[in-house]
DNA sequence: TTGTACGCGTTATCAG
DNA sequence: CTGATAACGCGTACAA
């Protein structure tokens, strides 16, 4: 079934069918109705390959997700999809393996599919301005704040202030009297990662309160409970007198909490814990875990808005920084 | 940049470039090298729209996920992607909203993009044989066992035995002396859902042990902690003397556990809990939650295998039923 | 071994 | 208001 068949059956020309389907040009109401009924009857769907080939431009939006199993992204992905569909565009979700260059992957996809726009969710900070320029189509970075050596006018972003947010959590723990606070994150010592930016905030808080920074208190740890568990175990075994843990994700925090609890220690009695992200599972943990919560759904929503503004020809790149929120649920308490 | 440009620059004909790119036909080594170097140099990527249009068939596989935020699916999605890419095909992940007909959505996609094959992950059981036949391309149902009124030879599936698995969990709780066991699931009373199949197993176990089935012990509940929490709260407030809870997903179990613990009751002291799926978060919950674990990654792997067998012309549909495993971590204990 | 020419299903331009 | 027709970029007979 192609447009030619529909045209023949409807007794009209090909272009008329095309006009009806795309609401372009003018078609008499009777012809339109006739064509539409045939389309309905034969369940005809235009071939998007042919369409995109001709238009040299598809209306497909791609979402490049670095770590699709990250629970924090789950609701964000849903919202992106909702918003993109609301604007009548198909969405392509593309999982990007850890270690794979998301820009290169996007580049490939753009050329292959003539994409309309791209949203990057998660990922790292180390790409050159040139790489972004080569993308050649509108894009938005979600979750990423600043890029080293890249002119802010060259890209749009939606994020929270990672440094400030980590500062907030650490400062809170310090205000409760904690001194030996450990920090768990992915690649904390590697430049241009979310982990390193949060480490910056952690350090800043320590410094402001005159607490010496001790690298032994920082553990590298993937964003999953099992890794948080292992990292926290390692830390506890060092006997550094840790009384508080700050994890760069709730998933890590949950693993760390398990390590603490299964060691016979109590939360927050012996160890206070603060996570990051604000996923549901942390709230329903027992005890409920404190966290620095990011407004994920709104961030997703605004990302799509910006993307479509850019597509509509809005040349000004925008940077929206959301406020994170320290949510206290009782997994931290004053040192006695 | 198109194939013509590459041909001109390389000083060869279009078809030679095509032959090099597709490894079809025979090309002299020197010409091949020259063309490839030009391709590399200009970073040329063939336009997949034109390619698929011409071939009347793309090599794209679609994964229709019903509820992409379901944590149990996270690793499965990753594995599907890995396996599909391993076979040199691009994967399109398509989130299907709750309430949206996944077959209709797939149908649309198939016509639009000339898909190669489809994997359905999650979703319900109520589609007619005719609908499946209309898809017209190879597909595999993952997570779904049987379909009402559909000839098994009309589709392939990869799943566990939901009835048997639920039976196993309930039987375990009964063997520990529990009599008032409640059951939490999505749409337990609606036919053709996973929830209803697991309810069947639950009932079967009760019956075999001569325990009367009480509908008041069954709560409808979405697959997320917040709903599990609310459902468990409702149940506890009924004062039915519940000593054990069986949840149709770990996410529900986590919410239910929180409800129990925050009511001042203990697990497993006062209430035993068994979940379903085997997600990481349940293992790192405190206490670690017992569960009926599904081998998600293997299921994903086999799904892709079957799909490609079908694509390769293997006409026989297959049904692989994996064994679920009752994982005891200490959240259940003998009634005293 | 290589190049030429046609057609895949659409949209857009133009003449009617 | 409508219908022919020329591209879009690629794969593939078929001719050289």
TrEMBL record, chains A, B:
GO molecular function terms listed in the Swiss-Prot or TrEMBL record: DNA-binding transcription factor activity; transcription cis-regulatory region binding
Native species: Saccharibacillus brassicae
Keyword entries, A-Z: DNA-binding, Transcription, Transcription regulation
Classification via PANTHER family: HTH-TYPE TRANSCRIPTIONAL REGULATOR GALS, LACI-RELATED TRANSCRIPTIONAL REPRESSOR
Boundaries of every HTH lacI-type domain copy: 1-55
One Pfam family per UniProt: LacI
Alphabetical list of InterPro entries matching this protein: HTH_LacI, LacI/GalR-like_sensor, Lambda_DNA-bd_dom_sf, Peripla_BP_I
Highest taxon of the lineage: Bacteria
Translocase in keyword set: no
Protein's name in the database: LacI family transcriptional regulator
Record's keyword annotation contains Mitochondrion: no
Signal peptide: none
